[in-house]
Amino acid sequence: MNASLSPDSWPSAHGVWHHLHLAPEALGAGTTAVPDAAIVVEQGAISWVGKYADLPDAYRQLPLHDGHGALVTPGLIDCHTHLVYGGQRANEFALRLAGASYEEVARAGGGIVSSVKATREASEDDLFHAAVPRLQALLSEGVCAIEIKSGYGLSLEHERKQLRVARRLGEVFGVTVRTTFLGAHALPPEFAGRSDAYIRLVCEEMMPALAAEGLVDAVDVFCETIGFTLAQTEQVFQAAQALGLPVKLHAEQLSDMGGSALAARYGALSCDHIEHLSAEGIAAMRQTGTVAVLLPGAYYTLRDTHMPPIAALRAAGVPMAVSTDHNPGTSPALSLLLMVNMACTLFRMTVPEALAGVTRHAAQALGLQATHGRIAVGWPANFVLWPLGDVAELAYWLGQRPACRVVRQGRLAVDGMGVHRSDA
Ligand code: NIG
Ligand code: FE
Question: How far apart are CA 42 and CA 410, in angstroms?
Answer without folding.
Answer: 8
